[in-house]
Amino acid sequence: MTGKVLAGLTMSLDGYITGPDDRPGAGLGEGGERLHYWVFGGPWSYGDAAARLRFCLAVAETVER
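The structure assignment produced for this chain is given below.
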């Protein structure tokens, strides 16, 4: 059975997708979350369940179109 795989990636206008020092456990690097505030409508963190839910809903809405 083949299913759809969806992935999202954002990039700043100057071409960055992570902050400095990206590594396991800090995939966006130091302060990299700032680059992605626009997706979540403001500040968020990896532990922010509400932000993850908003992101999933936004992706689902985009896929439905």
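Interim note for the steering committee: The chain has a mean pLDDT of 75. Helices lie at 37-40, 49-64.
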